[in-house]
Amino acid sequence: MDALKRKVMPRRFSMKDGSDDFHNYEEADEETQKHLEKEFAEAEKKGWAQGKPGSFLNKLIQHGNRKTEEEFAHSEGSKT
After folding, report:
1. Handedness of CA 29, 50, 72, 66 (dihedral sign)
2. Contacts of 43 by beta carbon, 8 Å cutoff, 6+ apart
3. Which residue, of 12, 13, 37, 65, has the greatest Cβ tally within 10 A?
4. Residue ranges of the alpha helices (H) in the chain?
5. Which of these, 31, 5, 3, 4, lies nearest to 17 by C-alpha position?
């Protein structure tokens, strides 16, 4: 029976999931990519460095910044 179980394929990230767990995905679905492209264009046009406040793009950037800060803090902590 175990041989018949199908291999679990990694899911693509979708903004419809409502999850804030952004770092477990390698790529996004097509709809999410198109939405982000529109948000990139709007942010560039309006001069928002981190996207429109409260937007999906803004949440992704904040998440990335937070993860980077945690990595820096961890690496600094391990050096001392």
Report:
1. negative
2. 49, 50, 51, 52, 55, 57
3. 13
4. 30-46, 56-79
5. 31
How many CA atoms lie within 13 Å of 33's alpha carbon, on the beta-carbon side? 6
CA geometry: angle 61, 64, 70, nearest 5 deg: 140
β partners of residue 28: 13
pLDDT digit string (tens) for 10-36?
Answer: 556 666 666 666 655 557 778 888 888
Q: Taking the mean position of all CA atoms in its chain, how far away is CA 51?
A: 13
Condensed to tens digits (0 to 9), the pLDDT of residues 43-78 reads: 999 999 999 999 988 988 898 888 889 988 988 877
What radius of gyration, in Å, describes the C-alpha atoms of the chain?
17
